[in-house]
Amino acid sequence: SQLSQFMDQNNPLSGLTHKRRLSALGPGGLSRERAGLEVRDVHPSHYGRMCPIETPEGPNIGLIGSLSVYARVNPFGFIETP
Q: Which residues form a coiled coil (predicted)?
């Protein structure tokens, strides 16, 4: 499913990386087929919140991302940066 995955437990770092993953796919989100280049590109509002480098290659490029190093999700669901 697009909303759930088995967690990668090869080592502690891969588990942490899996937990910090962000997705624009799924119910209420985008589909791979409808996502254009402007959605997949890096937006200025991502600065300090999402890592512009860590994204998969292939059809999910730009739709799956990761939190940046010091970013966190607050209790209201917003991504905060120092």
A: none
